Amino acid sequence: MDRIRIKNLELYAKHGVYPEETKLGQKFLVDAELLLDCREAGKKDDLTASVNYGEVSHFITAFLTEHTYQLIETAAEQTARALLLQYPLLQQACLCVHKPWAPIGLPVEDVSVEITRGWHTAYIALGSNMGDRESYIRQAVEALDLLEDCRVEQVSTLMETEPYGMTDQDMFLNGALRLRTLLTPHELLDQLHVIEASAGRERKIHWGPRTLDLDIIFYDDLVMCDDTLTIPHPDMENRSFVLEPLRELCPYYRHPLLQRTITQLSIANK
Known about the structure:
Layout: E1 2-13, H1 19-24, E2 26-36, H2 39-44, H3 53-66, H4 72-86, E3 92-98, E4 112-118, E5 120-128, H5 133-146, E6 150-155, E7 159-161, E8 172-181, H6 185-198, E9 213-219, E10 224-225, E11 230-231, H7 240-249, H8 262-269
Antiparallel strand pairs: 1-2, 2-3, 3-4, 5-8, 5-9, 6-8, 7-8, 10-11
């Protein structure tokens, strides 16, 4: 990934825990590293194929002077998010917010917070076997796309499938979508649960009937497992109702644990 660097951007803003900081303000310095693909801009000498660092500098200055936060952690977080939402070509933003006049009562040259934030690609499985199944799924796709930190990039064809696990229930309608998101895996899971709840989803019977089922299958190449979330989704390699929609969206994506493509997993599952 290519990088554009802005160093020691100086501005005067009102961030701090103490009242005098938010009233009087103080000096801040910002370092920004913008990650994007500059290939086309470099080949064509075309600024529209890149990110204008002068414009970015003014954007950062305006954002940090127009907003007030107690913590420089929050200032960095919200500025990075605003940059990623403002500039579509930007893949990641690394920000370091310096507070050289930090009121800590000791001699100190500088206090700073450095963060890296960026867009992630997640694949979400969609399912429903109660009521107007297609409507529930379509509403879920729309709800995800309406989230400010998410962009639905592609939705698979919907397919009717046999129930899995608990077979004595109605047929499912299943699909998948590719999502571009700034949310962490757990933040994304929380949003999926909110959307499921809005469709009347009740978690009473494992593998039982449901108005809407939204599962994170992949999140970049992340491998994780905790009390609430496992990525890649467990046993997905044995579920045709997950594999076939994914095969439409990302046939050559390689499972980070099994090291086989979606196409290979789909063929093996038949």
